[in-house]
Design goal:
By secondary structure, the protein is mainly α. Helices cover 81% and strands 0% of the residues.
Amino acid sequence: MFDRILNPEPMSYTSPELKSVFSKFKDLFEKHYEEQKKLEETYKAEANLNAQAIKAKLS
């Protein structure tokens, strides 16, 4: 969807203002998404480490 707005097909038109807004939105969305993925990976790693610690204490 964004690609069609940012790079319209022949005979289509997207205003420079709209392109700018969607481009900024897409950049911010992708940045936030990547940050969330990294945060999720960190949480999973911490949970795994805690589970291993608990197993070690029980052994």
